[in-house]
Amino acid sequence: MIRVQAKITAKGQVTLPKGLRTALALQEGDHIQFTLNEEGGALLEKRTVPGSSAGCGARLAAARKA
Fold this sequence. Notes:
The chain is an alpha+beta fold. The chain contains 2 helices and 2 strands; from the N terminus they run H-E-E-H. A two-stranded antiparallel ribbon has the order 1-2. The longest helix is centred in the last third of the chain and has 10 residues, at about 55-65. The radius of gyration is 15 Å and the shape is elongated. The model has no long low-confidence stretch (mean pLDDT about 85).
């Protein structure tokens, strides 16, 4: 499990620490989703936006190997 801390700015913005961005393979322009649970915790996930080209390179590489 990776635990990181970040500070919220006056504008409500948070910079995700590099270790977290690396672990989730996040890059500029990626979309993320927060899911809150009943215990007050949150889950952060990388999301693929329908119609985007996100991940198409990996799909093409896998198709060429098949």
